[in-house]
What does this fold into?
Amino acid sequence: MKKINFNIIYYFCLGIFILSGLFRTMQQIFDPLEILAYALLIIKIIKDNVEECKKIKNIKDINKKKILINVGILALFGVAFAFSRDITLVKFILLIYAFKGLEFEKCVKVDLYVRTIGVIAVLLLCKVGVIEDILVTRGDIVRHSLGFYHPNVFGDNISLIFFDYIYLSLYNQSITWKKIAIYSIIGIGLSTIIYFVSNTRSAILAILMILIGIILKKINIIGKIKENKLLKLTITNIFIILEIFTIVITILYYNNNYIGNLVNKMFSLRLYYNVQFFEHFGITPFGVNFNGFSNSIMTLDMAYSNILIRYGIFFTIFMCIIFKKLLKYLYENKNYILMVIFLIFIINGLFENVWLRIERNIFMLIFYQVVQQYIKDKNLGKQKEDERVQENFTQN
It folds into this structure.
């Protein structure tokens, strides 16, 4: 019997989640496929753990720290899901824990191909009238969804495809001015299309930011200031800084402060919606389910208030810690392209929360490597401590 290739199964499940996010108006087709994907990922996780258990020869080989960390993370996600009922958490944890044995770059490649094909399919179905082109106005501007459930989704997916393309082109190659010229032409072209079709400002900002980031990398600005302690402190703590900023600026707006009102206008009334959700649900330890309260008009776009209200205080603290470790990991390993991409997503979290959804942001899979590195560092620290104790015992 031919051995089952579970990596192919993982890519299949990943593709299902990506397409389901694109075809939100056709969920009756994708809901059963998502259930199948959940089951297949669980089977892969069980298979991986059984294989790992077979390698254990005696009780001393059991990595207790790894078990405790994994159980703690699962418990935290489980509690957050129980209170928020947000299926995104289930997708995230299954894709992360089933990631063993896979290559991050291949997953990005799958995302690029599947998302591109999916976007083209949605546009064609909209063109022939199968899917509706939803129109949304912003002042005098008419925004088109072109078959997606909201105009912003069109812009977000175009920018994500561009990010996939940039990363795969540069992650193990040098940056040349020729490449920068090509990326700039493509990026400006995509930004122009997004502006006139869906007018998704956050997507346009993201594209322009990654072009600037590539140029800064090319002229070695990042290399020259990488040892700057203040810069490292700011970069590694940017998620925490923006979480605090969101809370403070929302309080200022609530108290009718001039700066708060100004930021609310700049952020298209996002602080107003923050206040509505905070007043209705408050801040809880474990989060709340606000799916019935949230709709296309009353929506909590800011990622930082969304995390705090939907998932609660404990999960928010966890997110602050894990993002700090992620950025520190990328910074110290000189993975500047991926670091720039995450900084863009984190900054865009002030305007949109979709970058937190793993089916909309394939780069979140890098958390698997971060967790594994954290476990490795903990084990290495314990090993060094044991050696030191043994050395002192021998000397005495």
User: Anything to note?
Assistant: Strands lie at 135-138, 141-144.
